[in-house]
Amino acid sequence: MDKRIKVLVAKPGLDGHDRGAKVVARALRDAGFEVVYTGLRQTPEQIAEAAMQEDVDVVAMSLLSGAHPHLFPKVVELVRGKGMKDALIIGGGVIPETDIPALKEAGVSEVFTPGTPTTKVVDYIKANVK
Amino acid sequence: MENIAEEVLKGNRFALSKAITAIENEYDNATEIMQKLYPHTGHAYVLGVTGPPGAGKSTLTDKLAKEYRKRGKTVGIIAIDPTSPFSGGAILGDRIRMNELTLDPGVFIRSMGTRGSLGGLSHKTADAVKAMDAFGVDVIFVETVGVGQSEVDIVKAADTTMVVLIPGMGDDIQAIKAGILEIGDIFTINKADHDGADKLATELNMMLDLDGETKDWRPPILKAIANQNIGIKEVVDTFHKHHDHIEGNGQLTVRRTERAKNEMLDLLDARIGAYVRHNIVDNGKLDEYVQDIKARKTDPYTVVNSVLQDMLK
Ligand code: B12
Ligand SMILES: Nc1nc2c(ncn2[C@@H]2O[C@H](COP(=O)(O)OP(=O)(O)OP(=O)(O)O)[C@@H](O)[C@H]2O)c(=O)[nH]1
Ligand SMILES: [Mg+2]
């Protein structure tokens, strides 16, 4: 067995802020994960299809533009629709605290806001990946 | 998912994905999956895309795949990126250049880390190629990691190998001669919008002239500007030409026979190695051996001889 945790770091929508996504991607790599990064401006359909082709354990979305209330739930729906029942779906970026309960309700397991140490993200994934 | 192999053969994309995961992570069901898929392999044509880091391998692969799609072919892509030797992690970034292919139902892309393999591929690339082949794609691209000189495993995996070079490396070309220049069936000078493409072509030509007489296929040198979709049709036409050439002269059969042989021997080595290792780890003997070797009471050669003799009794 040579199992490694595989993560898709995805930037849905038109948001061009990619620093956070890159910081998180690098931190996950340094934690020994395999990180697929697909770059900016992905549609939810592209994210779900890439997640399926890569058979990732985690779909990690980064969004700073404010479009998360629409895009995050859409990605969750499409990923589940591909038959990926076990994939952990998380998000991060500039997301007001007040929005978080609704995102969780929609199936985003956890949300990480600015200032989160990347070690916290790593620990969360290790503890929750199936 | 149950019946992964059967589902792959039915054309289930998620099953193909699961099969490759099982292969890559060496899950218990991997061997059984491969046993069931193997009879259905041998139909896809495998194209290797190799060259130095940043040469435009992924961008070219994206455009070439689209050209094959226009010609009615389905495409699989396996894109390899380096695994960090320190953390064991990897950033797999080749898909960034291939996003327009993601939603094409006639294309399937999978990224893989090298996971310690040094030849520019991963140890499981060959089996991932077979899974895609059995799934039924017509053409499979294998993009290697960015290579220097010695990462030439791609020739063992591909039917036709394309080496991608870029202008500006002209002065270094002597240095890489020993390595990747010997494996190209086709050379593509990408980024021909940069100065020096002609100079590089001239130097390449001179070097190929040196050993050209002994071969019946003179590797063509093409130019491309991948990000502008220039020179792409010519590359695909040349892939076809090379395919026809090696099919006509029997080389394709020779290459595939050689591949089957190498793969069987590699599998045998890996299995025997794993079996023997497990044995001496499980029975606790390994530490004993190492202590004795360190104390110079015995030596590794003698120990290995006796371990093998015991086990093969
Ligand atoms: C740098 C920056 C830019 C740079 C971006 C450079 C780049 N390539 O990324 C530039 C100057 C280009 C820029 C442009 C704009 N920006 Co700006 N920008 C910022 C700024 C100051 C910092 C963002 C940043 O890089 N932080 C550093 C990284 C490391 O942190 P992070 O992304 O938050 O990531 C951390 C966590 O959030 C979390 N995380 C993030 N993603 C993920 C994903 C997962 C899966 C996980 C687990 C964790 C995680 O982990 C990271 C580490 O802790 C923020 C303000 C702020 N303080 O956040 C505004 C901000 C994001 N920008 C904003 C705006 C409005 C814009 C513009 C529209 C401005 C304009 N009018 O032109 C443009 C739009 C650009 C575009 N195309 O989308 C607003 C967004 C408002 C909103 N959400 O409602 C902000 C919040 C500023 C503000 N207060 O108004 N911006
Ligand atoms: N000017 C120019 N840039 C190009 C051309 N082809 C690709 N690029 C750019 O070169 C950069 C690297 O391209 P990739 O396709 O990622 O190169 P690669 O060989 O796959 O890189 P690695 O996989 O990291 O080794 C990207 O920014 C491309 O847009 C070209 O013909 N001309
Ligand atoms: Mg690449």
UniProtKB/TrEMBL annotation, chain A:
Domain B12-binding as annotated: residue spans: 4-130
Family matches, as InterPro entries: Acid_CoA_mut_C (IPR006159), Cobalamin-bd (IPR006158), Cobalamin-bd_sf (IPR036724)
Stored Gene3D superfamilies: Cobalamin-binding domain (3.40.50.280)
GO molecular-function term, one example from the UniProt record: metal ion binding
SUPFAM superfamilies named in the record: Cobalamin (vitamin B12)-binding domain (SSF52242)
Name listed for the protein in its UniProt record: Methylmalonyl-CoA mutase, C-terminal domain
Matching Pfam families: B12-binding
Keyword annotations: Cobalamin, Cobalt, Isomerase, Metal-binding
Species this chain originates from: Schwartzia succinivorans DSM 10502
Source taxon at top rank: Bacteria
Cofactor(s) essential for the protein: adenosylcob(III)alamin
TrEMBL record, chain B:
InterPro entries, A to Z: AAA+_ATPase, GTPase/Isobutyryl-CoA_mutase, GTPase_ArgK, P-loop_NTPase
Gene Ontology terms, MF aspect: GTP binding; GTPase activity; kinase activity
SUPFAM superfamilies named in the record: P-loop containing nucleoside triphosphate hydrolases
CDD domains named in the record: MMAA-like
AAA+ ATPase domain location: 43-187
Pfam families in UniProt: MeaB
Keywords associated with the record: Chaperone, GTP-binding, Hydrolase, Kinase, Nucleotide-binding, Transferase
Alphabetized SMART domains for the sequence: AAA
NCBIfam families in the cross-refs: lao
Family: Belongs to the SIMIBI class G3E GTPase family. ArgK/MeaB subfamily.
UniProt-recorded name of the protein: LAO/AO transport system kinase
The organism of origin for this protein: Schwartzia succinivorans DSM 10502
